[in-house]
Amino acid sequence: MLQLPEVAELRHRRKMVTNTLGGITIALFTSFLVAWIGFPDQLGSTSVLGIPLSLWVVLSQFAGTWVLVWAYFRLSRTYIQPAADAAIRAVADNRPDSEEVVA
């Protein structure tokens, strides 16, 4: 079944979404660690709009995580799910016992 083009496409799409969002997540948290470890004095003493830069960094991590979660759910629904539906149909059509596959 793994040789079916529809299943291969589903695996490719899942891999693309996982690797892309995973890479962005790693970059987001790495930048947080670099800022926190490398520039503690600047984060504590600098203010933007009356709010310490350290708080802005923490808020950016919170907001970035929510954006990544939203992107994952959005891509799951619009990019991965059509490929999953096609893969389910292809597997059901190629089953030797021709039983109905329940998704």
UniProtKB/TrEMBL annotation:
InterPro entries registered for this protein in UniProt: DUF485 (IPR007436)
Record key words, sorted: Membrane, Transmembrane, Transmembrane helix
Keyword Membrane belongs to the record: yes
Pfam annotation, one family: DUF485
Highest taxon in the source lineage: Bacteria
Transmembrane stretches, start-end: 21-39, 51-73
Descriptive protein name: DUF485 domain-containing protein
